[in-house]
From TrEMBL:
<dbReference type="GO" id="GO:0004848">
    <property type="term" value="F:ureidoglycolate hydrolase activity"/>
</dbReference>
<dbReference type="InterPro" id="IPR024060">
    <property type="entry name" value="Ureidoglycolate_lyase_dom_sf"/>
</dbReference>
<feature type="compositionally biased region" description="Polar residues">
    <location>
        <begin position="1"/>
        <end position="22"/>
    </location>
</feature>
<feature type="region of interest" description="Disordered">
    <location>
        <begin position="1"/>
        <end position="34"/>
    </location>
</feature>
<protein>
    <recommendedName>
        <fullName>Ureidoglycolate hydrolase</fullName>
    </recommendedName>
</protein>
<dbReference type="InterPro" id="IPR011051">
    <property type="entry name" value="RmlC_Cupin_sf"/>
</dbReference>
Length: 219
C-alpha cells in the first residue's frame, strides 16, 4: 500500500511503505508481561504405581480372592458425608499439568474402566492441624477457602505415577493430585468420593502462577 498526501503536488516528505513493512512494533504491557512470565517446563518421569512406590500417597488396590476385609482392601474414610460412586467421562487430558488439588475430608478412589493406562501427578498431604497453626504467614501456611490450613506443595515434591490393568488408586485424605491424565482422546474412570466433594472440598494450588512451573510427563 502507498500512502500519499491528499494534495495533488508531490511532497518531498512523502513516505512510501508496503503492508508487509518490517518496522518494529511497540509491545503493549500485556505482551511484555507474558514474556516475563513464561513458565519453566519441568519434565517428570512416570513410575509404575505399586504398593511400595505409592505408599506415601495412598494405596494401590489390585484384584484379590473374595473373602474377609483386610489390609489389602482400600482403607476408606467416607464418614463426613454421603458417599458418591460414579463413572466420569474425561476428554483431552494430555500428559502435562500446572495445577494440583486435594480433598481434605475424604479418601478418594480412582480407576480406569477396562484397565486402560493412565497417569496421576501427586504430592504428599500437607494439611496442618488447627492446633498447630501459629504465625501462618511466617510459616508459609495458606488458609483454604474450605476452611483448613495447609502448606503449599513444592515443585520438587511432585511425583508422577503410571497405572494400568485391573487396579485402582486410593488417595489418602489431603493427598495432592493432578489427573487422571492419559494419551487417548477420551477415557472413562470410576470415582469414589463424597456427594459434595467437588462443591465444598476442593483446594487447588497453581504451580504456574505461584511457582512459574508447568509439569510435562515423560513416559
Amino acid at each position: 500500500m502507498i500512502a500519499v498526501s491528499s494534495s495533488s503536488s508531490f511532497s518531498p516528505h512523502l513516505r512510501v511503505f508496503s503492508s508487509s513493512s518490517t518496522r518494529p512494533k511497540k509491545m503493549d504491557s500485556s505482551s511484555v508481561e507474558s514474556t516475563k512470565s513464561a513458565p519453566k517446563i519441568v519434565s517428570l518421569k512416570a513410575v509404575d504405581a505399586t504398593a511400595s512406590s505409592f505408599a506415601d500417597f495412598g494405596q494401590v488396590v489390585s484384584a484379590s480372592p473374595d473373602g474377609e476385609f483386610g489390609p489389602r482392601d482400600a482403607q476408606l474414610d467416607l464418614s463426613r458425608g454421603i458417599p458418591r460412586f460414579y463413572i466420569m467421562n474425561l476428554r483431552d487430558r494430555k500428559l502435562r499439568f500446572s495445577t494440583i488439588t486435594h480433598h481434605a475430608s475424604v479418601t478418594q478412589c480412582l480407576g480406569s474402566v477396562g484397565g486402560g493406562e493412565w497417569y496421576l501427578g501427586v504430592a504428599k498431604p500437607s494439611i496442618v492441624d488447627p492446633i498447630n497453626v501459629e504465625n501462618e504467614d511466617e510459616n508459609g501456611l495458606v488458609k483454604s477457602s474450605c476452611g483448613h490450613y495447609y502448606k503449599p506443595p513444592h515443585p520438587d515434591e511432585v511425583r508422577v505415577f503410571r497405572v494400568a490393568g485391573p487396579k485402582f488408586l486410593k488417595l489418602n485424605a489431603g493427598t495432592w493430585h493432578a489427573g487422571p491424565l492419559f494419551k487417548l482422546t477420551e477415557m472413562d474412570f470410576y470415582n469414589l468420593e463424597l456427594s459434595n466433594t467437588n462443591a465444598v472440598d476442593h483446594t487447588t494450588h497453581n504451580f504456574r502462577k505461584e511457582d512459574g512451573v508447568v509439569f510435562l510427563i515423560e513416559d
